[in-house]
Design goal:
The chain is α+β, with helices and mostly antiparallel strands. The protein has helices spanning 15-26, 32-47, 54-61, 67-76, 83-96, 158-162, 164-170, 181-195, 214-223, 248-253, 259-266, 324-347, 358-379; strands spanning 101-110, 120-124, 129-142, 147-154, 203-206, 227-231, 236-239, 257-258, 269-273, 281-290, 298-303, 314-317.
Length: 392
């Protein structure tokens, strides 16, 4: 989670460019006042230092005493769709970067009280404690240079979907039920596949804290997506491949062995030079595996570390024909996703949403993502003044 006391990385933003960008992203809005407040909110996120409360955003962009109320109304109550804006973010991200992966990351949004949509008690390893929070699951278009957020889902625990009163107060659509993390990720990927104008790229995600990751792997395989996924070290795997199956005794057990134990016991070390100045030699372990009850062949790999060292992530992929340096390069894109989430929290107000409704949350996440995308895409626009080509 970001520290608001850290120096901001925001830069001065020319007004005309923000206006053109806002029109490209939010031009689908039916009313002129909605489009005007979308631009104002975006401008405020880009230029307001520190905490980006609605009151502070309003003070940055307007001298009107009613501006804060209007911004609050625009985000929380105004009936505008966020899907068209996210579709346009996807188009611009793909136009101005060279996507190598669709990465998935989680944003932990601490909250006071129990009334914000989706809030619940959750143990957060990064914080080392249980906190009151919302969990946002984001999809990012990731290249070697940039990581751009283009879509979000809000994790809704069962207490929020089973209680009619809570659903009504938070304006949760009737069609939404309690979906586990893996189902939310699959839904993000399905939506992205329907929006992209480019060939599909691998899905990269850290699901090492998700105990039921198997349905995600099966779902991605059935859909024909390539993937590199960090999995729990306890994930049960079976040795061998579809062409060289495991011995009958191992197959009969159908429980296999924990992934971390299996890859350490059965893999030869492979050396790979890192990209740092020292060109350290990092050793990786890799082994073909299957999952119990599945015929697909996957590849399990992890960094080798000596006994007593912190356990590294264990990754599984269906890119079985690619060499280890290509796979490790994809996993390193995930660190860029974490950095993007940190910047969204610190510089673009991701943590500062003051509303409680489901639509309001999605409105705010879309606006924060647009502000971040504008800031980053200007840097890779390839023009002297950072002018973005917003044409279709």
């Amino acid at each position: 989670m970001a520290d608001h006391n850290r120096p901001s990385t925001l830069e001065p933003v020319p007004g005309p460019q923000v206006s053109s960008f806002a029109q490209a992203i939010f031009g689908h809005m039916a009313r002129a006042d909605q489009r005007r407040w979308a631009q104002a909110y975006l401008q405020g996120l880009l230029t307001t230092p520190g905490r980006k409360s609605v009151r502070r955003l309003a003070a940055t962009v307007s001298g009107s005493p009613t501006a804060a109320m209007s911004l609050q109304q625009f985000v929380n109550a105004s009936p505008w769709e966020w899907a068209p804006a996210r579709r346009e973010l996807t188009r611009l991200a793909e136009r101005h970067t060279k996507p190598r992966a669709w990465t998935v990351g989680n944003a932990i949004l601490p909250k006071r009280g129990d009334y914000s949509c989706g809030v619940h008690r959750r143990f957060v390893p990064a914080a080392g404690r249980t906190i009151n929070c919302q969990v946002g699951i984001g999809l990012f278009v990731s290249s070697d240079e940039e990581v751009i957020p283009v879509d979000w889902r809000l994790l809704l625990p069962q207490q929020w979907t089973d209680d009619d009163g809570m659903r009504a107060r938070a304006r949760i659509p009737e069609s939404l039920g309690c979906r586990p993390m893996w189902a939310q990720v699959l839904n993000l990927i399905d939506t992205m596949a329907s929006r992209t104008s480019q060939p599909r790229v691998p899905v990269v995600a850290d699901m090492s804290e998700c105990t039921d990751v198997d349905p995600l792997l099966h779902g991605l395989s059935r859909r024909g997506h390539e993937f590199v996924i960090a999995v729990p070290s306890t994930l049960q795997v079976i040795g061998g491949s579809a062409s060289r199956p495991a011995p009958a005794a191992a197959e009969a057990g159908q429980h296999g062995r924990p992934a971390q134990d299996f890859v350490r016991r059965h893999s030869a070390r492979q050396r790979l030079a890192t990209a740092d100045r020292q060109r350290r030699q990092v050793q990786f372990l890799s082994q073909p595996v299957r999952l119990p009850g599945m015929g697909h062949t996957y590849r399990l790999f992890t960094e080798w570390r000596p006994a007593g060292a912190p356990a590294p992530r264990v990754w599984i992929t269906n890119l079985v024909g690619h060499n280890i340096d290509h796979l490790v390069g994809l996993t390193r894109l995930y660190s860029g996703t974490n950095a993007a989430i940190d910047s969204l929290e610190r510089d673009f107000g991701l943590l500062d949403f003051e509303g409680r409704s489901f639509p309001g949350w999605h409105h705010h996440m879309t606006l924060a993502s647009a502000a971040y995308a504008y800031s980053r895409l200007r840097r890779c626009a390839g023009t002297e003044d950072g002018w973005l080509d917003l044409s279709a």
